[in-house]
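stage 2 :: seqdesign
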């Protein structure tokens, strides 16, 4: 079998996502006949049929479903290699580190100040950090644990307890402390593209084993706190979030049996860049010297 080309995988994925050769060709900026020929050639090289085709319908075969899943990893690896190579060719390449806003970016600024190598900090949205490392947009990410970090090496910097965020008039706000069982049946905010395990963790049902009651979909921490303040949901958050997110229309209470939240660094598994090793070492030293989050502001 001849080697499969990156171009062929991109053609395949366009057809697999559109399930229509005409739309896929338009998306790729090419005519349909060359695209159809390219897919037939790919099938001959692999010795398998990737698509079931009729005059009205296109669908993936079992083999096509496998290639669809595996090709995403291959294309991400190629894209990451190109991006990292181009950055390495810069006169003074900076280590690109990403984190979501808040505690993570504040910690990064402290680490960057103490680090001997140039560091570029890129702020990213919820759930984007690990993917930015996988596709080469970043060298290191600050990520939360638990989480899905396949293909990455991870170094935990510190762990902290979690607290409940509630509207002041909520019935649970009258208590001095809560348990995860108190969240049962109560809507909790949902992050886009979160997994079932993520939803269980952020609702406390990873401890109780009970069903998750989904609340409003939120895209950032400000929107999350708005849903809490309006009484649309209750949220289980890291203690450090409570320290940063103090406001009159939200109160915080300790949740005594909640799984802890850990902040960690993640980078491509097996990476040999000495700058990453130095950055991880500096980050560990800086984080060890900082006070640990955990105090819950009164409200």
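stage 2 :: out
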């Amino acid at each position: 079998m001849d080697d499969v080309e990156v171009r062929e995988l991109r053609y395949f994925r366009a057809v697999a996502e559109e399930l229509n050769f005409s739309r896929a060709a338009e998306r790729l900026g090419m005519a349909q006949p060359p695209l159809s020929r390219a897919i037939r050639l790919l099938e001959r090289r692999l010795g398998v049929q990737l698509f079931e085709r009729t005059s009205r319908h296109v669908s993936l075969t079992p083999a096509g479903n496998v290639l669809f899943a595996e090709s995403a990893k291959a294309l991400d690896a190629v894209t990451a290699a190109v991006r990292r190579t181009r950055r390495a060719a810069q006169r003074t390449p900076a280590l690109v580190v990403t984190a979501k806003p808040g505690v993570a970016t504040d910690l990064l600024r402290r680490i960057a100040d103490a680090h001997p190598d140039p560091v570029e900090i890129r702020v990213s949205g919820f759930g984007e950090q690990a993917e930015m490392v996988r596709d080469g947009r970043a060298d290191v990410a600050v990520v939360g644990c638990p989480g899905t970090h396949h293909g990455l090496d991870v170094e935990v910097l510190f762990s902290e307890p979690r607290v409940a965020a509630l509207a002041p008039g909520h019935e649970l706000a009258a208590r001095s402390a809560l348990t995860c069982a108190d969240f049962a049946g109560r809507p909790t905010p949902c992050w886009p593209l979160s997994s079932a395990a993520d939803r269980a963790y952020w609702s406390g049902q990873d401890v109780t084993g009970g069903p998750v009651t989904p609340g409003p979909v939120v895209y950032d921490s400000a929107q999350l706190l708005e849903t809490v303040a309006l009484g649309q949901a209750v949220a289980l958050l890291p203690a450090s979030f409570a320290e940063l997110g103090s406001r009159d229309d939200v109160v915080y209470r300790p949740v005594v049996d909640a799984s802890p939240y850990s902040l960690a660094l993640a980078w491509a598994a097996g990476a040999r860049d000495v700058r990453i090793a130095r950055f991880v070492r500096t980050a560990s030293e800086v984080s060890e010297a900082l006070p640990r989050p955990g105090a819950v502001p009164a409200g």
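stage 3 :: structure notes
- Residues 295-299 have pLDDT under 50 and may be disordered.
- The two ends are 67 Å apart (CA to CA).
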